[in-house]
Amino acid sequence: MTTDRYQSPLSERYASKEMQYIFSPDKKFRTWRKLWIALAQTEKELGLPITDEQIDELKAHAEDINYEVAKEREKQVRHDVMSHVYAYGQQCPKAKGIIHLGATSCYVGDNTDVILMAEALELVRKKLVNVIAELAEFADEYKELPTLAFTHFQPAQPTTVGKRATLWLQEFEMDLEDLEYVKKSLKLLGSKGTTGTQASFQELFDGNQEIIDKIDPMIAEKMGFEACYPVSGQTYSRKVDTRVLNVLAGIAASAHKMSNDIRLLQHLKEVEEPFEKSQIGSSAMAYKRNPMRSERIASLSRYVMIDALNPAITSATQWFERTLDDSANKRLSVPEGFLAIDGILDLCLNVVDGLVVYPKVIEKRLMSELPFMATENIMMDAVKAGGDRQELHEKIRTLSMEAGRNVKERGLDNNLLELIASDPAFGLTLEELKDTMEPSKYTGRASVQVEIYLSEVIRPLLARNKDVLGVKAEINV
User: Fold this and answer.
1) 124 torsion bin: left (phi>0), alpha (psi -120 to 50), beta (else)
2) Cα 33 to Cα 26: distance, rounded to the nearest angstrom
3) Which of 33, 192, 237, 429 is most buried, with most CB under 10 Å away?
4) pLDDT in single tens digits along all 477 residues of the chain
């Protein structure tokens, strides 16, 4: 463990090893070498005098990066790509003359960035699908359990615990749609030269347009992509990074909303995130069970949502065919956005998988407010028994105010039913009124909506993604 310099908490505490590897030096520079091999192979196949022996030499050293040679070279030339061209050439003396032939730095830099973002999006997709699966299971289990709903965080018409979970679930489902669309849209830069005109290949291939048109598609195929962007400057449009980070920000917003709801429910003691046997909630108050995982989701989510501004501003401020003020920002904003969302999804998996529901607390709170919710039904029953609707409406309004004062000012239980039973205008006994207090009568179509949503939308989605199901998250701290 390094203790004498800053270590990113995204790596040390939050992100998985899989996501960290995607943005590691090994993955980056091995991808550079794969791109150089793909370029050399393509140029050979299109007629340039490159030999199989040279290609084989490049392949032999595709994985063993000689970092120290590149590091020392960069101190001299102040250019990371040319330092690695030099280092690769030291290992491949027969091929060093054709490494990076006709390309500019963005050939390896930008193509690698797209490749890494595509792989990182796939890992995010995998975890997002599993969050959806866990939430669907939770929603299904509790689709019929009535609970007090809230508007403005004030008591409102009852819903069910499962129906509330579908509100979280639907937002994650929307995020998955966005992710899949953006991931499918990703293309490579290809090899277009210093200003995107492919002038170097015009020279290499003696102006043969038919051959030059084949370069990008052949490189894309070798690297596992369907196509390259048809036009570019020296770089691919930084709008691409904006689209990708906006997907991550969308997931973060959904996770934040869910975690906030869970934090509020834990305050109400209705639903609680996992709390381990030896976990400490507070250094001072030993009894506390703080929703620290949900709080961490919210904390990291705010970071990702704000981080999405970086590529947007970078995209907006690029000058003409290329400026370099994107580079330092991209090195931070894109990897760290992915590392943070990876940690967020691991936390979501852990929290949803271990959510604890307390039905008795839920029922108690619901029953304390249900008489207010039931007043319309009570009024209808009284009208059917011969009462006057307008007169009863005013009486219920007055009695509800009195019951509310009893609760708020005197600290008493809600006695609205007793007050109504004692008023002869309603013609209803206390027992008859209590019979109307069945919570399921007031949840509308909540449970039906859950079942329809799960069967028509979520279960088909999970069936399409069954190959990535079964992910469990490890939380480091």
Assistant:
1) alpha
2) 11
3) 192
4) 678 999 899 998 999 999 999 999 999 999 999 999 999 999 999 999 999 999 999 999 999 999 999 999 999 999 999 999 999 999 999 999 999 999 999 999 999 999 999 999 999 999 999 999 999 999 999 999 999 999 999 999 999 999 999 999 999 999 999 999 999 999 999 999 999 999 999 999 999 999 999 999 999 999 999 999 999 999 999 999 999 999 999 999 999 999 999 999 999 999 999 876 444 455 455 445 789 999 999 999 999 999 999 999 999 999 999 999 999 999 999 999 999 999 999 999 999 999 999 999 999 999 999 988 888 888 888 888 888 889 899 998 999 999 989 989 999 988 999 999 999 888 888 988 888 889 999 999 999 999 999 999 999 999 999 999 998 887 877
- Going by C-alpha positions, the residue among 414, 373, 378 that lies closest to residue 395 is 378
Q: What pTM did the predictor assign?
A: 0.93
Q: Which long-range contacts (CB under 8 A, 24 or more apart) does 217-223 make?
A: 218/42, 218/45, 218/46, 219/35, 219/38, 219/39, 219/42, 219/111, 219/188, 219/190, 219/191, 220/187, 220/188, 220/190, 222/38, 222/41, 222/42, 223/34, 223/35, 223/38, 223/111, 223/115, 223/188
Phi, psi of 411 (to 5 degrees): 70, 25
Cβ 132 vs Cβ 172: under 8 Å: yes
CA geometry: angle 39, 42, 45, nearest 5 deg? 150
H-helix or E-strand spanning residue 36: helix 25-45
DSSP, collapsed to helix, strand or coil, labels residue 213 as helix
Alpha-carbon distance of 272 to 291, in angstroms, equals 8
User: How far, in whole angstroms, is CA 384 from its chain's centroid?
Assistant: 53
Residues with catalytic roles: 152, 282
456: exposed, middle or buried (Cβ count in 10 Å: 0-12, 13-18, 19+): exposed
Classify strands 154-160 and 271-272 as parallel, antiparallel or unpaired: unpaired
Going by their DSSP bridges, the two strands 146-151 and 154-160 should be labelled as antiparallel
Separation of CA 448 from chain center: 28
Residue in 243, 240, 252, 237 with CA at minimum distance from that of residue 306: 252
- Extended strands (E) in 193-307: 271-272
Spatial distance between the Cα atoms of 353 and 372, rounded to a whole number of angstroms: 35
Does residue 332 contact residue 290 with C-beta atoms inside 8 Å?
no
Q: How far apart are the C-alpha atoms of 186 and 40, rounded to whole Å?
A: 23
Residue spans of beta strands (DSSP E) within 63-107: none
